[in-house]
Amino acid sequence: MNGLDIVERVLFSSEDIQQRVQELGQEISKDYRRGLGQDARKRPLLVVGLLKGALPFMADLIRALDIPLEYDFIAVSSYENGTSPGEVRVLKDLERAVGGRDVLIIEDIVDTGHTLRHITRRLWAREPASIRICTLLDKPHRREVEVLPDYVGFVLDAPWFVVGYGLDFGELHRNLPYIGALRPDLITD
Ligand code: IMP
Questions:
Q1: What separation in Å is there between the alpha carbon of 86 and the centre of ligand 1?
Q2: 33-89 pLDDT, tens per residue?
Q3: Which 8-state DSSP code applies to residue 95?
Q4: What topology is assigned to 13-160 in CATH?
Q5: Which of 9, 105, 109 should be mutated for ligand 1, with most atoms under 8 A from CB?
Q6: Residues in contact with ligand 1 (CB, 6 Å cut-off)
Q7: pLDDT tens digits, residue range 96-119?
Q8: Alpha-carbon distance 154 to 31, whole Å?
């Protein structure tokens, strides 16, 4: 099945996403340029992408940022592979040290909040200067633990399961250029 067969409707077109990414890029660049950064040694912002879902968003967002930055990745297991939402497993950790640095975490979607709570706790233990969170999508009504993203692309209030632009259903459909709501009849549990 291709994208349009599995999508009930397109929620955010490729153009919608690119426009919002540019807006976020300007906002984030302005914030860090104006001195949000607390890194006493004035090192570049460290942008941390959560694999795999954040990859397309991060690739576009970093090119919309006009501030010095480095980037790195953390890979976390999704709870679809036999784990419950409360469990988060780190499959690949950062290569860069974060002590004393400004860190901006890039996520595809915040749902229950367990993933980001786990990752932010883990990173705070390494004593960065600051941590902020930028997520493409936010489902605040689904939150089980408190996570407040600093930058949000779009808020999803309806109970859609979404695919595309990095978001998967059974590892598929990450390559769709838009974000679509999955057809409800395809969701079995
Ligand atoms: P959380 O720990 O419940 O906040 O889950 C975050 C992760 O769940 C995201 O990074 C996605 O991998 C996955 N996820 C949550 N909602 C969706 C969705 O609507 N579509 C695709 N993946 C989702």
A1: 12
A2: 977 778 888 899 999 999 999 999 999 999 999 999 999 999 998 665 444 566 789
A3: S
A4: Rossmann fold (3.40.50)
A5: 109
A6: 53, 78, 85, 107-115, 161-162, 167-168
A7: 899 999 999 999 999 999 999 999
A8: 19
